[in-house]
TrEMBL record:
This is RNase H type-1 domain-containing protein. PROSITE patterns: RNASE_H_1. Signal peptide: none annotated. One of its GO terms (molecular function) is nucleic acid binding. Residues 69-205 form the RNase H type-1 domain. Residues 1-32 have a biased composition (Low complexity). SUPFAM superfamilies: Ribonuclease H-like. Residues 1-37 are annotated as: Disordered.
């Protein structure tokens, strides 16, 4: 995703505050900086996991029917960075088989995140959310517009960069944990991923600070 110019802050309500210290952008690829990038990825995952857990705990109290849906799901994700590395945001949209939105997740990411790190963050955040919805699901379709992330998760590309390895490992682990009959991971063009792209840009605009400070979630009652 190529982030757009700043826009209005997202309308979704913050649910799970958390903090993450600023991480300076790496200017070279020394072992020390690679280790720092790997540590940053681990801490990002920790904050996302905590935020999604708290957010879905509240969501399922407000809309308990979401955990008993007898159908499949579609999850779209996106992420972007202004500066690459720079201010970044990630988002995931969870829909039912009829295309109705069940939940929306957004997160502002630490200063210094790259586009690929933000894309992986969106994927992992969406997969974390699916763990709460997929117990009765039959088929899950997962889509994103990052060819690199999609192909690495499908095993078509190797993931060798230390800053991406923890994110890649978490994504493949979460995919294996989905309680569905089948999960299909698919690359789509950006115009077919417009909703997640919009939300990722809103997440960048929402908190232009070098930390993860909230995860947003909302739900719509299905007819």
């Amino acid at each position: 995703t190529v982030p757009r110019a700043p826009a209005a802050a997202p309308r979704a309500r913050p649910v799970a505050p958390g903090t993450l210290p600023a991480q300076p952008a790496a200017a070279a690829s020394s072992p020390e900086q690679q280790d720092e990038g790997e540590l940053k990825a681990v801490r990002v995952l920790s904050e996302l996991g905590r935020g999604v857990s708290l957010a879905f705990g509240q969501l399922l109290r407000e809309a308990p029917y979401l955990s008993t849906l007898q159908q499949g799901y579609c999850m779209s994700f996106d992420g972007g960075s202004r500066g690459n590395p720079g201010l970044a945001g990630a988002a995931a949209v969870l829909q039912d088989s009829q295309g109705r939105e069940l939940a929306v997740l957004q997160a502002s990411l630490p200063f210094g995140c790259t586009n690929n790190e933000a894309e992986y963050a969106g994927l992992c955040m969406g997969l974390m959310g699916l763990q709460y919805l997929s117990a009765a699901g039959r088929v899950c379709r997962i889509v994103g517009d990052s060819q690199l992330v999609i192909r690495q998760v499908k095993g078509e590309y190797a993931c060798r960069k230390p800053n991406l390895r923890p994110l890649h490992e978490e994504a493949t682990f979460l995919l294996g944990q989905l309680a569905v009959d089948s999960a299909r991971v698919q690359h789509v063009l950006r115009n077919a991923n417009a909703r997640a792209d919009e939300l990722a840009n809103e997440a960048i605009d929402a908190r232009p600070a070098p930390r993860i400070d909230c995860v947003y979630v909302c739900a719509r009652q299905g007819a």
